[in-house]
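User: Structure tokens for this complex, please. No commentary.
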Amino acid sequence: MTRPALKNDTFIRAARREPTPYTPVWMMRQAGRYLPEYRATREKAGDFLSLCKNPELAAEVTIQPIDRFDIDAAILFSDILVVPEAMGMNLSFQVGEGPVFSDPIRTVHDVDRLPVVDAEDKLGYVMAAIKEINARLDGRVPLIGFTGAPWTLATYMIEGGSSKDFANTKRMAFDAPALLDRVIDKVTDNVIDYAKAQVRAGIHVFQIFDTWAGVLDPRLFERYCAAPIQRIVQALEGEVPVTVFAKGCAQHAERLAATGCTVLGLDWTTNLAPIREKVGDKVALQGNMDPSVLYAKPEVIRDEVKRMLEDFGNHPGHIANLGHGIHPGVPPSHAGAFIEAVHEISARMRG
Amino acid sequence: MTRPALKNDTFIRAARREPTPYTPVWMMRQAGRYLPEYRATREKAGDFLSLCKNPELAAEVTIQPIDRFDIDAAILFSDILVVPEAMGMNLSFQVGEGPVFSDPIRTVHDVDRLPVVDAEDKLGYVMAAIKEINARLDGRVPLIGFTGAPWTLATYMIEGGSSKDFANTKRMAFDAPALLDRVIDKVTDNVIDYAKAQVRAGIHVFQIFDTWAGVLDPRLFERYCAAPIQRIVQALEGEVPVTVFAKGCAQHAERLAATGCTVLGLDWTTNLAPIREKVGDKVALQGNMDPSVLYAKPEVIRDEVKRMLEDFGNHPGHIANLGHGIHPGVPPSHAGAFIEAVHEISARMRG
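Assistant:
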């Protein structure tokens, strides 16, 4: 374990709903294409997957936003699809098309041949990146590790890539639910091993991203989103704080809080106040400004930050963030205005 | 006015929350590519827009699902984007890309040059189609007219087509809200004139589709979805029942019911029971089976229909439907199994 002591633990204290002098803030996809220094490193690495698999360069891009902005957490640079790739699926990123698995899962045979892999072996480059990041960060801020949630990973594995209506995964859910259960179980086992390996490597916080949970009806949401996430959260009990972010699932906030997670991430389609009233005694909340606000002038960004902070109110347990990843076309100075506004306005609200 | 008296008014009675012997049912996009007879007529018409603009052929495809299945309502075959086209925007449908406006709205000048058009003149082909459909239907079932909601239409007009993150529309919402207000107002004026023309032409019910309202934060939802929809609903007061369907907006059900609409459409991500408890004294509910269920075996379709009907419960005020348009790859026999199951199971529940 190489987890350094933290010089700035505001994020961790807010996650535990302890008072902090200001609201900590980070941005989903903060190490990304909107930063010229990211694009330069990406160029050096070649393709996207090579960047993920190069611990030195992955550490470099992870730390770029920490060097540029006064952010309260770093997030491991990686991709959610490294897990299915480690399970033996052939992954490539096609320009303009997104990720492609050339051998999508369609039959029992396809599922049964998928192994539960030793993450420290097959995903050793992620653990190496975590160690390298911590060595370079030297405790400046906590490091967030992450995974895709089983449902979201399963959609890519079954569709063979991105999808509009998830036809194959949905067909399996309704026509062959036992088969989809097997996929989800297998992925969940792998994710748990992966999460524990990240904890051993030194992450301070673990986040689960369920990007596509919002397309499920309430019964399937329970079966394929909430239940497997709960299994992951329970496997990490006593290890590190766990954040659950299921996009488009504000109506399921109570169920997600009941998974036992430490922090519940929210997108921008909901107000924070009613969610805090419902689940604020169980979890901290993370979010939730529309990332598109960052296209606007800095004055507008400030107004929207103020609205978000006042919506949550002057209580402990808020980690400010966007409601989804930062868009590639945003000027870095606008991201800076967002971070500065969170710190300044929240500090003033405490006073 | 050529609105024929109805032989089957089950839909209308359910919309008014009056008791019916069974639950009426129709399917969004029921006149569509999953039907071989639709594909044949489409072939005859040439491109998609030509089909929309040919009253004889539009009537033909509107009635195809009524001839094939025991459906309780017909819906005008058209496209939501005929309104911006009638306003002078140049619309085309590119194969594999969807709709394209070659001259998207970006400036005040672009907005101010958009007229409020006389729908009976510029959209006369829609009114002609309505009259032709009614002549052929001869009151077998009610005819639903429709429009896209102002927000959804504005996204296409500003983005120039389909979009993933609505960057230009969102930028306008945050950086130039007065400009977006003008777009929305102008579109709303046009939609109201269009709706009234459809009523005069003979529709029995009017539905407003806000396909992209689910990407708005609560403040923008009020300003760009709920308020303009309310203006349209109020303009149609005393005319025909109005259905509001805003996809991905279950959390806003109370606000949408407060627009004064007759029926609230719901997608499949929510259960009907809690929504009925909240707004069932104000509106009927329409929906909400996941359209992907129709990929599954007929037995599974029956089970899911039963679940949906029991979820709503044995109360008046339910119009069964899918939670979004039927997918093009669904076998027509599966659509038939859905409709039959709704009728059979709901009739048994009444007993």
